[in-house]
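re: that complex we talked abt at group meeting.

here r the seqs, copy pasted straight from the sheet so there may be weird spacing, ignore it
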Amino acid sequence: MDFVPVNEPLLNGNEEKYLIECIRTGWISSEGPFVARFEEAFAQRVARSFGVAMCNGSAALDAAVAAMGIGPGDEVLLPTFTIISCASAVTRAGALPVLYDSDADSWNGDVSQIERKITARTKAIMVVHIYGLVVDMDAVMALGKRYNLRVIEDAAEAHGQTFNGRPCGSFGDVSVFSFYPNKHVTCGEGGMALTSDPAIAEQLRSLRNLCFNANRRFVHDELGWNLRMSNLNAAVGLAQLERLDTFIEIKREMGAWYTAQLSDLDALQLPLARVPGAMNDYWVYGVVLKDKVEFDAAEAMRRLAALGIGTRPFFWSIHEQPVYLRAGMFSGQSYPVAERLARRGFYLPSGLALSREQRLRVVDAVRSVFM
Ligand SMILES: *Cc1c(COP(=O)(O)O)cnc(C)c1O
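got the structure back, here u go
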């Protein structure tokens, strides 16, 4: 029987039509019209004034951190349970990530740990909406205001998600999205940084395009990168965005269905259906092995793979990354929730193209491993 992949995107809207338009008009570079159309439509969806499309979400994080003026001597608070891109954006800017642990139930950063880690060197708070649930943005924005800190909101996993009715990605001084194929809206590869501040938007545009001097091309007062998105990627992104509401409905239905099928298994901690301010939209359907299970996530994933089911492990915490430990960073630090999630958590196939038949096979396999 065919392997059930952990993710497969749904590309049956206007993707083909828009791509053909790119080919027929000859517009394939970042100068093509789909880039601005995608930026405007996505910014409107996120209730922001400006969207700056980039080649991927990690690049958008690099640009966002740089646009906040973060550099050597600065500290940036960020959850240890996240993708490396959050930390690498900070360390490559020469600044220091100061980590906080996650909440054991929502798996999102535990905002109550942030305040006591703020120092005179703290420049920004980075938050990450994890796996379809949402960080308490009221609490984060209040801290940012009280201590005069920038807020960087990584909403890569939260397209179309809301907190108290306001779009995720509309809160931070700058917010970042990814359009990797497992995200609700994909471009193949792509990302975007958004803001409502015209000066930050200008910075982001400049950083994306090598910081060309406005008066004399090929003259540079600052160093940027080439992070531009092509018209081809934007064409796919725009077609995907048109269907975002449908995609979220599919994910919510899938998540609720998995929970109904698996909730009697007392080996597994399942995702919360809601947190204050938001209903889960199950960007991915994660599970965590309870303590009574004698093996770890790696073994569970091996057993499921043997039954033809693809899975992915949860994040590996920033404070346990070999690259940082080797540099002497985070030594002696411990974040027990994140450490446990990294070893006991993984996610099931939850892509938008997952068929009914594939879902049933996933549930049968999970039940047979954990009964
Ligand atoms: C996917 C993701 C990114 C990185 O995006 P890429 O486009 O893969 O570089 C950043 N942050 C989070 C939370 C993500 O899930």
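couple things i noticed - The chain has a mean pLDDT of 97. The pocket of pyridoxal-5'-phosphate is lined by residues 56-58, 82-83, 85, 128, 154, 156-157, 178, 180, 191 (CB under 6 Å).
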